[in-house]
Amino acid sequence: MPHHATTNPQVATTHYPVAFKQILARIRHLGSLPAEVQDDLARAVTPHRYHPGQIIYMKGDTATAVYFLAKGWVKAARISCGGREQATMFLYAEEVFGDVAVITEAPYLDTVTALETVEVWRMPAHTFREQMTRHPSLTMAFARRLGERVRYFADLVEDLSLCSVEKRVARTLLRHARLHNAH
Q: What backbone torsions phi and psi does residue 182 show, to the nearest 5 degrees?
């Protein structure tokens, strides 16, 4: 079983809602959720810690949870039958992952591995879907997140199919420079 996380002993149970809501406030589209929604979400998560190299979930696993990344870096990747690995995303603190599989009720799309010590807040899939049913603002927030991902991948397909390697490298460098200057 790939889920060998440890519960975070440094976060006392009474502090879960406050600590989780601090992370939630910094996640794009989720920080502006109404207080009632944030409170409901905070009551439904548990903290977990993963160590470097530890698999959080594997491609094809049943989607059992959504993860809110509080600390550290993770890599989402696909591995071919021949053992070649293709990283699909690198995520760092204040990101969400596993949501696409949970929302679509499909297996996880990638294998996600901790690149360093990672702390996440884990919400069971059925609870996440119940929260989305109960709170339209949460559903709309995730619809916006998914819409942005669709636009990103549409742009990526366009880049890969219509642009030269030199132009793609130049765009990537420019994008990274803008991100670096923004932080």
A: -75, -25
Is residue 61 a contact partner of residue 108, using CB atoms and an 8 Å limit? yes
pTM beyond 0.90, yes or no: no
Task: For residue 113, give both structure tokens.
Answer: 């591995």
Reduced to 3 states, what is the DSSP secondary structure of residue 26?
A: coil
Per DSSP, the three-state class of 47 is strand
Please tell me the distance from the alpha carbon of residue 3 to that of residue 23, in angstroms, as a whole number.
Answer: 22
Domains of the chain, CATH where assigned? 6-135 (2.60.120.10)
Q: What is the pLDDT of residues 27-82, one digit of tens each?
A: 989 999 999 999 999 999 999 999 999 999 999 999 999 999 999 999 999 988 88
Query: Residue with structure tokens 């406050």?
Result: 18
Alpha-helix residue ranges (DSSP H) falling in the chain: 16-24, 35-43, 99-104, 125-134, 136-162, 165-182
Q: Higher pLDDT residue, 7 or 38?
A: 38
Tokens linked to 131: 């929260």
Say which residues have a Cβ less than 8 Å from residue 30's Cβ, sequence separation at least 6. 24, 96, 141
